[in-house]
Amino acid sequence: MADPNAYQPDEQDLKLARLLDQAVDSVDSAREQPARGQDPLLPFLAAYKSAVNLKTESPADARLWQRIEQAIDDRPQTSPGPRPWRQQMPVIRKDEPVPKMTVRWVPLLARVAALLALVAFMWLLLTRDQVPEPELIAQTGPDKQIVTLLDGSRVTLRPYSELHRIVEAETGQTYRVTGEGYFEVAPERQRQFSVLTGDARVVVTGTRFSISTWDHRTRVYLEQGSVMMSLADGSSGTMLEPGETGEIVDGSVATSTETPSETHLGWLDDVLVLDRRPLASIIREIRQHFNIYVQVSPDLVDVELSGTLVLDDPGQILEDLAVSAGATLEQPEPGRYILARTGRN
After folding, report:
1. Which of 100, 159, 199, 340 has a CA-to-CA distance to 113 between 20 and 30 Å?
2. What CA–CA distance (Å, rounded) separates 315 from 58?
3. Residue 193 class from Cβ within 10 Å (0-12 exposed, 13-18 middle, 19+ buried)?
4. Residues pairing with 66 in the sheet
């Protein structure tokens, strides 16, 4: 028996409910699933909005909605099948608290960290591009060249050598040399003066020294003053004294005082002074000075020679060496020589 006190929806309420139901049916027939990330209620509301404009009404209680549902279910259905949207739509009463939004902090912090990492990476790329490339100051051909630096220091470059400026700032100067150079660094300096090679670093104040790189390793001869010689990364540093030679051997600095200055600086006067020196090392210096190719028979590389050679004609120099080493000299083409043993001295 029906409860006489129960709320009875009027015809207007039933008309609005049927319009809503028709809008839902039209959306259900047009698509089976909502778009990814879309609330399933949105297409229903859009269809209903196009059908009727609702007026603001006071909230209905649960009994009103039960009557509306019963009236809708009593009319003939044009679209069979369940309407799961009715079970999905929550009913919020006035006395229930409104759900609060939950912020997921961990994913948010992860996104912020990723953004900061990207910004740091881009900054490194930009600053790397701003680092200046070494500037070629001088490049010699068959003749020596004297270069005067901005602070008054002078560098004499051996033939077929190069000098690059890496840093020229208030705090210091850094250069790179390939081949060989003789440095006369201005005294009473307030800035650090450094010279780099492929495997060594030399830091000086006021001094005179030579650096060569043509003998498969860096060699420094200190004529006056003092220098700190180390590996290229600044490790294994050794202080050189006047008359001392430093070489990079097996990853460290080896020093000696066995050779006179003429053997290191004779090229400044266009002479090559030999003091029981292996032929292989002599040939490497001649290759550097004249930019030629010289092939030496393996049984000649350890022959030691002494004497003085004038650095003027490479053919004549090699002929003199061949006679001293008991070898013959061949020249198959310009700029190419072969030393081969023919007998013993």
Report:
1. 100
2. 114
3. buried
4. none
Total length of the chain? 345
CA distance 248 to 233: 13
Percentages helix, strand, coil for the chain (3-state, rounded to 5) are 30, 30, 40
Phi-psi category of 335—alpha, beta or left, where left has phi over 0 and alpha has psi -120 to 50? left
Largest Cα–Cα distance of the chain, in whole Å? 139
The dihedral built from the CA positions of residue 61, 101, 86 and 57, taken in this order, carries a sign that is positive
Tokens of 253: 């600095």
Q: Looking at the whole model, is its pTM more than 0.70?
A: no
Q: How far apart are CA 122 and CA 133, in angstroms?
A: 20
Q: Are 221 and 210 in contact (CB under 8 A)?
A: yes
Task: Return the SS3 of 95.
Answer: coil
Q: What is the pLDDT of residues 114-150, one digit of tens each?
A: 666 665 555 445 544 444 578 999 999 999 999 999 8
Cα 175 to Cα 167: distance, rounded to the nearest angstrom = 7
Candidates 269, 318, 286, 272; CA nearest to 215 is 286
Q: What is the pLDDT of residues 263-296, one digit of tens each?
A: 999 999 999 999 999 999 999 999 999 999 999 9
DSSP codes of every residue in 235-250: -S-EEE-TT-EEEEET
**Domains, the chain, ranges and CATH?**
11-88 (no CATH), 135-263 (2.60.120.1440), 270-341 (3.55.50.30)
Structure tokens at 184: 């006369």
